[in-house]
Amino acid sequence: MSINAEFLKKEAEMKALSIRKTSMIRYKFIVLSGKGGVGKSIVTANLGLAFSKLGFKGKIGILDADIHGPSIPRYLGYENAEVLTDGEKLYPVETKYGIKLMSASFFLKDKELPIIWRGPLKIKLIRDMITSTEWGNLDLLLIDTPPGTGDEIQGIVEYISKITGAVVVTIPSDVSLHVVKRAVSFLKTVNVPLKGIIENMSFVRCNDGSVKRPFGEGGAKVEKELGEKIIARIPMNPLLSNPIDDTNNPYEYDNLNNNEVAISFMEAAKKLIESQSGV
Ligand SMILES: Nc1ncnc2c1ncn2[C@@H]1O[C@H](COP(=O)(O)OP(=O)(O)OP(=O)(O)O)[C@@H](O)[C@H]1O
Ligand SMILES: [Mg+2]
Q1: 203-223 confidence digits (pLDDT tens)
Q2: pLDDT recorded at residue 275
Q3: Which residue from 204, 233, 241 has its CB within 8 A of the most atoms of ligand 1, so it is best to mutate?
């Protein structure tokens, strides 16, 4: 067999393996945005916590597929955790929140150094994380992605069996409409259904209970022009600017009713599941 044919055969086998490995997971949501820094990773981490609270504890995985800026472990307070390995197998880090984590961040000694990967290597690394991770018995997988709609996201979509749908994260600035449109048309090209838009940094709640919208009202335009409902409006809140720990965990407060961060994410999580079951 020529080197080329052998390479193609190996690639096809790896793809089949990654599809097989993810085919048993019932719900698979990919989180993306057309733009960096809008809160994809914070939203992914919080959706994980919300799903855990809603009964998926121990059955959720998060695949941090942003290999340039992997941040989920940091946001959940597991930045220095180590992945156990056995030959080619990788075991995800099990967090106390009942969320299993896999991230390139676990393989970096110096978390501050930027990773410089060339295109095909990036896809290969993501694919290897998918094929080698032993998730165990999982009901739901959340996939955090790098900014934009580039090759890596296309690669992820190819290597995961039947993605349930996408969550697009945006902020209510004027440019957001354009950015959401781009993300939505990208989803059409890769055949992944849009399951919900989450407007992050939507408002600030003042001490007197009133609301200020420093980024504007872009979300309303998104709903009008795209005919898509926003499934959650997440406030700007210090709970979301620091890693989760025992003193900063909106899901562990005694009275969840007073906690609009946790409530908003739990509502979004419920809607994502309902959208799938057609309720
Ligand atoms: N609603 C919020 N309230 C307060 N801080 C927030 C909120 N959303 C995000 N942040 C903060 O903004 C920063 C960027 O968020 P995050 O890393 O989730 O964005 P991202 O879209 O994943 O970025 P990148 O495109 O680089 O992956 C983080 O420091 C995060 O803690
Ligand atoms: Mg991110």
Answers
A1: 999 999 999 999 988 888 888
A2: 84
A3: 241
Identify the structural domains of the chain with CATH numbers, from first to last.
8-278 (3.40.50.300)
Q: In what order do the strands lie in the sheet with 27-32?
A: 93-94, 99-103, 60-64, 140-144, 27-32, 165-170, 194-199, 230-233
Distance CA 97, CA 62 (A): 12
Question: Residue 140: which H helix or E strand, with range?
Answer: strand 140-144
pLDDT of 279 reads 45
Q: List the residue whose alpha carbon is closest to atom 15 of ligand 1.
A: 39
Q: How far is the CA of 88 from the centre of ligand 1 (A)?
A: 33
What is the structure's pLDDT at 112?
A: 66
Q: Which of 157, 146, 143, 155 is nearest to 62 (CA)?
A: 143
Distance 45 CA to ligand 2 centre (A): 10
